[in-house]
């Protein structure tokens, strides 16, 4: 397996701290009290260091939603039937999903990657067909995916990002769609940071408390079933993961390797980001965290990442919607840095 994913070991460059220092000095010259724009200043400085310039630009942003089905839905863990995954793919094509509206409003590039659905999805130029299999297996009964499927899913995430790099992407926003994927994410998180399912499992798509108990039972069963296989990030992903979660983890890691910042969405994307970080902690230098979701357990994942999300609007939609909502904030931070007048230019007296 290792020779097919050698790229996982590619060195990640740490953003330029000298540029960051120069950007902080530049911020103090702008017509405002030092530090008065709070975290907006920190955001601009980080983008300067990542891009190696005092004029950061993230107008070229790409939003990619990875979609896949999950065998664990057989355990009745979702409020929606599995068919909704494919139906939502059609909704993406039609432009009717929340993230489609947001991408258009934000003038961000948007496309969907079909990682593998239980039934045939729509064939459209807006959907990149990279099916690894017809959804994962039910991890309560067997391993979610084979070793070959794991490798394929990792490589899809990598190649998608390589395509974005060639298109001069300045910021990557990953998203996910897949009925049952909060159950997979909860199981993955429990295995990686050793917390009880009761602490991690939430309401997902809006299940009842009875449904949440079924979800807890499924996660518990999966963890018990594969306890001997949960020794490292890749083994955990193979045993419990979803194709789209694996691809997201790979995408975040490859972005960092190619010096492309990632804006992390909510619960499921944060789980994928945590796996990327456990494979290579240096990728954390390239992450921004958009929001704290309403999903139970997200705080635990954010804490494991050492993350400070920028907003909390109690969202739990997925699809990269929370990250897309934060994109204007990041762009504004860069615009303020680039376009505000300096004290000497504006004829404004600086602090003595």
Descriptive keywords:
352 residues; six-stranded parallel sheet; 14 helices; alpha/beta; Rossmann fold; 47% helix
Folded structure, characterized:
This protein is an alpha/beta fold and 352 residues long. It has a single domain, classed as Rossmann fold, CATH 3.40.50. Helix content is 47%, strand content 9%. The protein contains 14 helices and 6 strands. It has helices spanning 17-27, 39-51, 83-94, 98-106, 147-166, 181-193, 197-200, 209-225, 233-240, 243-257, 267-279, 298-305, 321-339, 343-346; strands at 61-68, 109-116, 127-129, 171-177, 262-264, 287-289. Strands 3-2-1-4-5-6 form a 6-stranded parallel β-sheet, sandwiched between helices. Helix 10 crosses helix 11 and helix 11 (267-279) packs parallel to helix 12. The radius of gyration is 21 Å and the shape is elongated. It starts with 16 loop residues before the first helix and ends in a 6-residue tail after the last helix. The relative contact order is 0.17. The model has no long low-confidence stretch (mean pLDDT 96).
What is the first-to-last residue Cα distance? 63 Å
How many structural domains in the coordinates? 1
CATH topology tier name = Rossmann fold
What is the number of helices? 14
Chart the SSEs and their pairings.
Layout: H1 17-27, H2 39-51, E1 61-68, H3 83-94, H4 98-106, E2 109-116, E3 127-129, H5 147-166, E4 171-177, H6 181-193, H7 197-200, H8 209-225, H9 233-240, H10 243-257, E5 262-264, H11 267-279, E6 287-289, H12 298-305, H13 321-339, H14 343-346
Parallel strand pairs: 1-2, 1-4, 2-3, 4-5, 5-6
Helix pairs in contact: 1-2, 2-13, 4-13, 5-10, 6-8, 6-9, 6-11, 10-11, 11-12
């Amino acid at each position: 397996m290792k020779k097919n994913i050698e790229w996982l070991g590619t060195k990640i460059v740490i953003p330029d701290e000298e540029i960051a220092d120069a950007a902080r000095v530049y911020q103090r010259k702008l017509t405002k009290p030092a530090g008065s724009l709070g975290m907006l200043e920190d955001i601009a400085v980080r983008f300067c260091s990542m891009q190696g310039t005092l004029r950061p630009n993230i107008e070229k942003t790409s939003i990619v939603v990875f979609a896949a089905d999950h065998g664990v839905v057989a355990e009745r863990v979702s409020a929606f039937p599995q068919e909704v995954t494919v139906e939502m793919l059609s909704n993406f094509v039609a432009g009717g999903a929340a993230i489609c509206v947001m991408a258009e409003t934000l003038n961000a590039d948007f496309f969907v990657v079909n990682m593998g659905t239980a039934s045939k999805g729509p064939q459209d130029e807006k959907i990149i067909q990279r099916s690894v299999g017809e959804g994962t297996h039910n991890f309560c009964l067997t391993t979610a995916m084979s070793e070959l499927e794991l490798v394929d899913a990792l490589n899809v995430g990598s190649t998608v990002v390589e395509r974005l790099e060639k298109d001069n992407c300045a910021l990557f926003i990953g998203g996910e769609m897949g009925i049952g994927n909060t159950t997979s994410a909860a199981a993955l998180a429990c295995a990686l940071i050793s917390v009880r399912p009761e602490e991690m499992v939430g309401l997902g798509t809006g299940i009842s408390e009875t449904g949440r108990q079924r979800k807890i039972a499924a996660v518990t069963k999966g963890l018990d079933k594969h306890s001997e296989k949960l020794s490292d990030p890749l083994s955990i992903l193979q045993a419990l993961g979803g194709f789209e979660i694996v691809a997201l983890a790979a995408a975040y890691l490859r972005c960092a390797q190619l010096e492309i910042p990632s804006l992390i969405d909510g619960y499921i994307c944060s789980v994928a980001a945590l796996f990327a970080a456990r494979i290579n902690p240096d990728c954390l230098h390239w992450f921004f965290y958009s929001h704290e979701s309403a999903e139970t357990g997200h705080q635990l994942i954010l804490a494991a990442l050492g993350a400070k999300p920028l907003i909390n609007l109690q969202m739990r939609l997925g699809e990269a919607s929370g990250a897309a909502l934060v994109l204007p904030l990041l762009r504004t931070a860069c615009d303020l840095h680039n376009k505000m007048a300096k004290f000497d230019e504006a004829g404004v007296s600086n602090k003595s």
